[in-house]
Amino acid sequence: MLFGQSVFQSVLERLKAEDETAEGADAPAAHRVSGLGTGFAFDVMEGVSAASQRVGQAYFDHLDLDASAGVVEKPAAAPPAEPAMPDHLARTTPHEVAAELAISAADTPLTLREKRRAFARANHPDGVALPFRDNATKRMMLANLLIDEALRRIGR
Question: Which domain holds residue 93?
């Protein structure tokens, strides 16, 4: 207790006194931070914020638009060529995929996991052009099936 008041009550009295003195002084502009000599996050020209005059344009001020630099006609680009399907994506039978994986009785779980990763790097559907994703998906499903079966045989 300070002078018959609790600490909380004395803090409230002090804040109330500071608030009364602040009302008498000129209130700073709403966009100003007390103690800083310049505006906070505003470009002020002649007392008026430039951004406040062009509210809808603030976004476009930061874009490099052709309209601001003068419209320049771009030459017409040639249509993109159709992507060519890699040869390995045409091999979608189980025998062809098994031949590529070259799974043998000497393979360990570690070597089989490495074969799966290497096969996925070359054949994953996310890594090929859109028209060839069905073939890549089929190849990945076959490879995963064959490697999972080899891992089951090793586990026995």
Answer: 87-155
Determine the pLDDT at residue 30. Answer: 57
**pLDDT band, residue 108 (cuts 50/70/90):** very high
Q: Taking CA 44 as the corner, what is the angle to CA 38 and CA 47, rounded to the nearest 5 degrees?
A: 100
Would you say residue 140 lies in a domain? yes
For residue 122, being part of any structural domain is answered with yes
- How deeply is 128 buried, as exposed, middle or buried, from its count of CB atoms within 10 A (0-12, 13-18, 19+)? buried
Per the structure, how many domains does the chain have? 1
Quote the pLDDT of residue 10.
Answer: 86
CB atoms within 10 A of CB 62: 6
d(C-alpha 32, C-alpha 123), whole Å: 59
Cα distance between residue 61 and residue 68, in whole Å: 9
Q: Is the pLDDT of residue 42 over 70?
A: no
* 45 beta partners: 48
Q: Is residue 101 part of a domain?
A: yes
Residues 48-85: tens digit of each pLDDT: 555 556 656 665 666 665 555 555 566 677 777 888 88
